[in-house]
Specification:
3 strands; alpha+beta; 4 helices; single chain
């Protein structure tokens, strides 16, 4: 088995991913690629970068100045995409917190309503 560990700035899995949390670290294994990776706890600089990027995005007006209709369409699409991923998210949450899959499906099933 080929192994590699790397610090991840953003995850965009191309394959089905198994995720396990150990302490303050999250480990993910891309089953098709068989390449485990881990995500380290963010540093203060990491957090400052994220906050600065968020402020920059807000200041750009892409979201903050968009019409209510546009924002509602984006959030509706997000809710639909989230709903499609609920079975996978329920499995991940079950692995992380140890609840039954039935309980997680019921709990996560309500998420799209909030968007």
């Amino acid at each position: 088995m080929q192994q590699a560990s790397q610090r991840v700035q953003g995850i965009q899995p191309r394959h089905q991913t198994s995720i396990v949390q150990v302490g303050n670290r999250v480990a993910a294994s891309q089953t098709e690629a068989d390449l485990p990776l881990s995500i380290s706890e963010p540093t203060t600089n990491d957090i400052n970068d994220v906050v600065a990027n968020a402020q920059s995005a807000f200041d750009s007006g892409i979201w903050s100045r968009a019409s209510a209709l546009h924002r509602s369409k984006v959030l509706s699409k997000l809710a639909h995409l989230l709903e499609e991923q609920l079975p996978r998210l329920a499995e991940i949450e079950t692995m992380q917190v140890g609840r039954t899959i039935r309980e997680m499906r019921a709990q996560l099933g309500r998420l799209p309503e909030w968007l």
